[in-house]
Amino acid sequence: MKGHMKLLAVNEGGKDEKNEIVQTGSIADLYLEIKPGLGSVYIDTFPLTKMDTQLSTRFAKEIACKFLNKDCTKYDFFYTIKADSSIIGGPSAGAALAMLTVALLDEDVKKIDETVTITGTINTGGIIGSVGGIKEKIEAASKNNITKVLIPKGSSFTFKLNETKINQTISIINESIPFAVNGTINKTISKENISDKINLIEHGKQLNIEVIEVFTLADAMKEFTGKSYETPEGDINLVGFYTTTMGSITQNICNRTTELNDRLSKSIISKEGIFDEDELVNNALYGGLYNRTLELINLSSTSLTNKEFYPAASYCFGANINLDYLILINANISAPQKAAKLDELLTAINNSNQILDNMSLTSLNDLQTYLIVKERLVEAYDNWEKATEIMNKNQTDVEYDAEYNVEYEIAYTTERLYSAYSWSYFFNTSKEQIIIDEQALQDSCKMTLSEAQERLEYFKILYPYPFPFLETTTTELQRAYEQLNANNFKMCLLHASKAKSEIDAVLSTVNLEDEQLEELLNVKLELVKQVILRQQMNGLFPIEGYSYYEYAKSLAKTDKISGLIYSQYALEFSNLDLYFNVVETHTFIESAIIFIKDDIGRKAIIAFLVGIAVASVIFVIGIVYVGTRNKVLLVKNYPSNQRIRKTRK
């Protein structure tokens, strides 16, 4: 199988008189040949590209095979990229690589339109992700007989980003991640900081290029080949164990909200002799925090009414941090008491990790729960470490400041640890015994880690500005590498997935204006739903992926930036079969029952029974026939016929 398409690229340009990077679009040729083989991927480029293009190629192939649900281990893939000049490597060719691969692998595709091309990354779930230099790429396409350019959803406008714009954008992202459950981020980017705004669809028309936004690989394939691909439809069927267990977790965390609120009331009464909620609400120092806490409690109540358990638990968790913090502040504990509290928390974190690491994971639910609980223990330790650092520096400001306040970090550590305990309810919720493929975990860890690193480097090329948010992503990447070196592939995968989700969230939102966020979020949520439905068709349920999906839907009403971030988490943590090759073990009777329940199995059994029936009829006819012949021969039992009779018997 052979195929070719034009590839849009950006040349590695220099800088202008203002020391700003100048990019120009260019065209490259992408060739693919697929031969019988062992699932290997080969790439040849001229001029030589960076290693990250090779990473994109391997991932694009995996996404394409997954998209078609095709076993690609019996093929070798030979990709060739030829360009006239040195182009910027990176993930921006991912969508084109995946698109051409699907076109060749799909036997129903008879023809591809080489006047159509695409620019964009290819992400988990088949999402076409944001890239840079789209305006320049469209201009290059117009000079090379291309009539249609597909671009990522939300990329139809471009403008020159100045440093103020960049800092404001990343400030929003930074605040959304750690405080998504503590505060609603409704900041908008000032339009005065946007210069040279261009509508790329209109720009394409002026150049006789049809520019179309696409969100998924399925959207792109329809434009490229004319074929429509079916997507799962219907509502997500919440399995019983999730509803029951998540309900218990939510009740546990929200009961703690009530308990902490009562403790705050009692602590104020014991100190001042009276509890006046109105006075606390209007307090200049803590009034805002307590008001936000009451808002979170109300949001939780609404979510519970709608049976949205994860959002309810998240809102209660945010309220619990604030209440715990206010209790500590009101108690005015001494430095030795704070140190003792931190010692207790560290002991609890270490004991929890030890218990967790000694557990035997016998089901996919256990494996997911392990990662969820571990993630919370890591966060608890991070905040413990931050509190300890502040203590050592004697930075104990009374004023509320999450970054420099020991009491707040103690409160966060306590509640994160408590939530880890609560999520452990998901252990042993499945009787299905599985064998976890450690090699698959290792391969997935390395692949996801490579993707995250690749996107980070690509982002730095596009936006050579200081981004404080990238410190979080870099930390997650470092942890992933540490876990990989320690052969802890489960935790490597967890940290790598978080890093990839964060950088993808930034890439997909950095150029968007306020009115575009809602549309992008709605489309992304629909895609998450399709991914979860597809998992359910395979008999799997992504516990954390669905939880993030539910939370992203709740945030969509008030905080679209955070909603987009959590929808990205949902996508990353919903693709269980991409990360875990699970081998189920069943008894003979269980296997027989599964076979009978399966549609193909039922047909095979019917065919087998029909075959038995036909064979039985033939056998009976044969017996009757032979018996009759023998009877005749026995009657005519002349000596001369003995040999014939024995032969016929």
Short description:
With 649 residues, the chain is of the alpha/beta class. The chain is built from 23 helices and 13 strands. Helix content is 60%, strand content 11%.
The profile of the biggest β sheet is: 4 strands, mixed
Strand content: 5-15%
The second-level CATH architecture of the largest domain is 2-Layer Sandwich
Kindly state the number of beta strands: 13
The domain count comes to 4
Helix-strand makeup class: alpha/beta
Kindly identify the CATH topology of the largest domain: Ribosomal Protein S5, domain 2
Q: What's the N-to-C terminus distance?
A: 58 Å
Overall pLDDT confidence: 80
User: Tally the helices: what do you get?
Assistant: 23
CATH top level class name of the largest domain: Alpha Beta
Give a structural overview.
The protein has 649 residues and is of the alpha/beta class. It contains 23 helices and 13 strands. It has helices at residues 51-68, 94-105, 134-142, 163-176, 200-206, 217-225, 240-272, 277-281, 287-305, 309-331, 335-357, 364-392, 406-423, 438-462, 470-485, 489-509, 514-537, 543-555, 560-574, 576-579, 588-597, 599-635, 642-648, and strands at residues 2-10, 25-36, 41-46, 75-83, 116-118, 121-123, 127-129, 148-152, 157-161, 194-199, 210-214, 434-436, 582-584. Strands 1-2-4-3 form a 4-stranded mixed β-sheet. Strands 5-8-11 form a 3-stranded parallel β-sheet, with helices on both faces. Strands 6-7 form a two-stranded antiparallel sheet. Strand 6 and strand 7 (127-129) form a beta hairpin. Helix 2 crosses helix 6 (217-225) and helix 12 (364-392) runs antiparallel to helix 13. The longest helix is centred in the C-terminal third of the chain and has 37 residues, at 599-635. It is globular and about 80 Å long. The two termini are 58 Å apart. Mean pLDDT is 80; it is low at 161-194, 396-403, 582-591, 593-601 and 628-649.
